[in-house]
UniProtKB/TrEMBL annotation:
Name this polypeptide is given: Phage head-tail connector protein
Domain of life: Bacteria
Lineage: Bacteria, Bacillati, Bacillota, Clostridia, Peptostreptococcales
């Protein structure tokens, strides 16, 4: 189950965050499905969902911030699909899904 995988990777043992993590999973899944123009997530892209969900969880409280610096420590936040877009584009390419415009 995705929830358990994500909780293990985040080091979360309690049930308090389960609803929040499930919501993040569903929102992230919807974004991926919209990007690849599918209604079901292919098994081969599950790892992208897990990784992006973890990224989103870690950004809670920092929504909309590109970077921040506190006490000399600087943190930069990536765009949603940054670092994973090539996996999604490869999937689209391999499965001949057109993204963008189509010649008729």
């Amino acid at each position: 189950m995705l929830l358990n995988r994500i909780k293990v990777l985040l080091g979360i043992n309690d049930y308090d965050n389960a609803e929040l993590i499930n919501e993040i999973i569903e929102l992230t899944k919807s974004k991926i499905l919209n990007y690849i123009d599918k209604t079901e997530l292919p098994k081969e892209l599950e790892f992208v969902l897990v990784e992006l969900s973890i990224q989103r969880y870690n950004k809670i409280g920092s929504e909309g911030i590109a970077s921040e610096s506190v006490d000399g420590k600087s943190v930069s936040y990536e765009a949603d699909f940054e670092g994973y877009k090539h996996y999604l584009d490869d999937y689209i390419s391999k499965n001949s899904i057109s993204k963008g415009f189509r010649l008729i």
